């Protein structure tokens, strides 16, 4: 009888030691518990508050999976190597499901594919009709470079500072693209940190931008009604993506994967001869890649990578980056207001931070608060899509000078 | 150009922590390249816009009216289009009136059209229908 009891107790003890529950109560297990709690908060925000649910839900679930002890779905030791060189043979032998999906992030495959889908969904005709909006898209990238200065002065390495700064572009795929390329070693911050900060602040755009917009503009400026845009011919719309690809890729070759795929998607849409491809790129492919990107980025948010002072620094600099981008855009909008003798509403400047179409909606909403008969949406889309191109160019510049 | 850090001057990529000069150089170069790239695109769009507008206006130039065209032929066309427009308007008025009558029928009230006058739009710059359509499309945002 005693022997049976011994076997039962040994087996139960083995089961307990192998269970994730025991690991949660072991050394450092509290960090996993906190991360699981954070993943629940993000799930709540995505489901109940509708905060970027298409991305926040996969990210938060990836965060949950990766912080469950012994689940072995993602292995940071395969990716975060001191010399930065990943042994893909070893990855294939020792990987979990999320490691396989993470290859699309590490090899910079997902962000350009997301840009392909975005290109299929974007109408550049307001920008073609009103090219000076490009200036607002460029000005809003000031947030990236001013944050780069702050991060550099705070002692982050060049690669870390660039990855944090790109959050100011308010463009999730671009932030993931840059950080996955630059953060190859076992540094204090990861791609997951950057993605988490970027998407958190993108979801909080409706809270961050309006107070700054009201603070920096007068009622008279917010009430400006902008002139209706000219009609753009189909030929112009077809030539535009080709011209942008050639010009930007020749100027900043590192931006070619993002800008090239964005413009390829747009070319497919505008030609009207490849409707099946457009349908796949903007629906099925986009959705598949979004799931893979979200869940694998979520997997990189392991407790040790999030619960530290560096991540607090990333979050702090992230909100600074967003705010500076918004401020730069609005201030440039005010310059254009003066230069055009009151024909440009400065509110459209804040849409220069990409965050398509959220930032454009916010400009429309704040404009309509001042005058309900003022419809800025078409005009806010100009700097908004210009911001996408601008942040891709800024990313290309950072990638070409920083390793 | 001693302002530029050695790595940037030699075309090497920057690694590790950065000094003040490196940070300033990357920031200035970055902003300059972003503005330069987008300025080139603006220039391209203005040039192509001018070309397309010119070719579009050439395509849409009205054909000169033949001198020998008899005036009698033009007059009936004008009359037809005028009366068609009036018919369209009265149809719209009738449809709106029918809707109001249906609404009033529930309370046992009857309504009569006394006059139909165009409303001065003031500063709105668009018709009530266009205004309602715009509100419909933008309110969800």
Quantity of strands of chain A, as a count: 0
Domain tally of chain A? 1
How much beta of chain A, percentage-wise?
Answer: under 5%
Structural class of chain A: mainly alpha
**Number of helices, counting only DSSP H or I runs of 4 residues or more of chain B:** 4
Mind summarizing the main beta sheet of chain A? none
Oligomer: heterodimer
Radius of gyration of chain A: 23 Å
Low-pLDDT sequence parts of chain A: none
Descriptive notes:
The complex is a heterodimer of chains A (403) and B (141). With 403 residues, chain A is mainly α. Chain A has one domain (37-401). Chain A has helices at 2-18, 20-24, 29-48, 53-66, 76-79, 88-94, 97-106, 110-121, 125-129, 133-139, 142-153, 158-165, 172-182, 191-203, 205-216, 219-222, 234-251, 256-271, 275-299, 303-306, 309-339, 358-370, 377-401. In chain A, helix 3 (29-48) packs antiparallel against helix 4 (53-66). The longest helix of chain A is centred in the last third of the chain and has 31 residues, at 309-339. The mean pLDDT of chain A is 91. Chain B is mostly helical. Among the domains of chain B are: 1-61, no CATH class; 78-113, no CATH class. Chain B is 64% helix and 0% strand. At the A-B interface, helix 9, helix 10, helix 11, helix 12 and helix 17 of A face helix 2 and helix 4 of B.
Q: What attributes characterize this protein structure?
A:
heterodimer, A: 403 residues, mainly alpha, 23 helices, 0% strand, elongated, B: 141 residues, 4 helices
Show the helix and strand layout:
The complex is a heterodimer of chains A (403) and B (141).
Chain A: H1 2-18, H2 20-24, H3 29-48, H4 53-66, H5 76-79, H6 88-94, H7 97-106, H8 110-121, H9 125-129, H10 133-139, H11 142-153, H12 158-165, H13 172-182, H14 191-203, H15 205-216, H16 219-222, H17 234-251, H18 256-271, H19 275-299, H20 303-306, H21 309-339, H22 358-370, H23 377-401
Helix pairs in contact in A: 3-4, 4-19, 7-19, 8-13, 8-18, 8-19, 10-21, 10-23, 11-12, 11-21, 12-13, 13-14, 13-23, 14-21, 15-21, 15-22, 17-18, 22-23
Chain B: H1 6-9, H2 20-59, H3 71-105, H4 128-138
């Amino acid at each position: 009888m005693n022997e049976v009891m011994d076997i039962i107790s040994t087996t139960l003890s083995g089961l307990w030691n192998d269970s994730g529950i025991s690991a949660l109560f072991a050394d450092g297990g509290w960090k996993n518990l906190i991360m699981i709690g954070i993943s629940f908060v993000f799930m709540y925000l995505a489901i109940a508050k509708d905060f970027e649910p298409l991305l926040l839900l996969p990210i938060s679930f990836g965060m949950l999976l990766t912080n469950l002890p012994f689940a072995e779905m993602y292995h940071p030791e395969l990716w975060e190597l001191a010399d930065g060189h990943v042994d893909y043979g070893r990855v294939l032998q020792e990987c979990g499901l999320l490691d396989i999906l993470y290859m699309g992030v590490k090899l910079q495959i997902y962000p350009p594919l997301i840009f392909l889908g975005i290109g299929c969904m974007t109408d550049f005709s307001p920008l073609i009709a009103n090219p000076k909006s490009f200036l607002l898209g460029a000005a809003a990238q000031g947030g990236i470079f001013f944050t780069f200065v702050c991060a550099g002065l705070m002692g982050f390495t060049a690669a870390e500072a660039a990855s944090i700064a790109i959050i100011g572009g308010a463009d999730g795929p671009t932030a993931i693209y840059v950080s996955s390329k630059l953060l190859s070693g076992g540094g204090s911050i990861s791609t997951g940190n950057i993605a988490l900060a970027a998407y958190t602040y993108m979801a909080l755009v409706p809270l961050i931008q309006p107070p700054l917009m009201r603070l920096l503009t007068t009622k008279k400026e917010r009430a400006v009604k902008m002139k209706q845009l000219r009609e753009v011919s189909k030929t112009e719309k077809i030539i535009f993506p080709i011209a942008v690809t050639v010009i930007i890729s020749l100027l900043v070759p590192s931006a070619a994967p993002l800008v090239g795929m964005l413009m390829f998607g747009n070319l497919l849409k505008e030609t009207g001869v490849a409707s099946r491809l457009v349908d796949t790129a903007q629906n099925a492919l986009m959705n598949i890649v979004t799931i893979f990107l979200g869940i694998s980025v979520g997997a990189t948010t392991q407790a040790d990578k999030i619960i530290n002072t560096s991540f607090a620094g990333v979050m702090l600099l992230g909100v600074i980056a967003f705010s500076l981008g918004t401020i730069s855009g609005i201030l440039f909008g005010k310059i254009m207001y003066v230069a055009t003798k009151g024909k440009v509403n400065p509110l459209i400047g804040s849409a220069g931070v990409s965050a398509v179409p959220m930032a454009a909606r916010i400009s429309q909403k704040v404009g309509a608060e001042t005058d309900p008969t003022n419809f800025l949406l078409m005009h806010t889309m100009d700097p908004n899509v210009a911001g996408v191109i601008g942040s891709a160019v800024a990313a290309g510049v950072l990638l070409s000078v920083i390793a | 150009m001693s302002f530029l850090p050695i790595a940037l001057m030699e075309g090497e990529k920057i690694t590790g922590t950065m000094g003040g000069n490196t940070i300033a150089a990357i920031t200035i170069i970055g902003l300059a390249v972003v503005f330069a790239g987008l300025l080139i695109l603006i220039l391209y769009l203005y040039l192509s816009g001018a070309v397309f507008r010119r070719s579009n206006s050439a395509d849409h130039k009205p054909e000169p009216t033949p001198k020998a065209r008899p005036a009698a032929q033009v007059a009936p066309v004008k009359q037809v289009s005028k009366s068609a427009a009036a018919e369209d308007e009265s149809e719209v008025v009738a449809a709106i009136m029918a809707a109001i009558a249906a609404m009033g029928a529930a309370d046992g009230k009857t309504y009569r059209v006394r006059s139909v006058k165009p409303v001065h739009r003031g500063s709105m710059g668009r018709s009530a229908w266009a205004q309602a359509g715009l509100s419909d499309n933008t309110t969800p945002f």
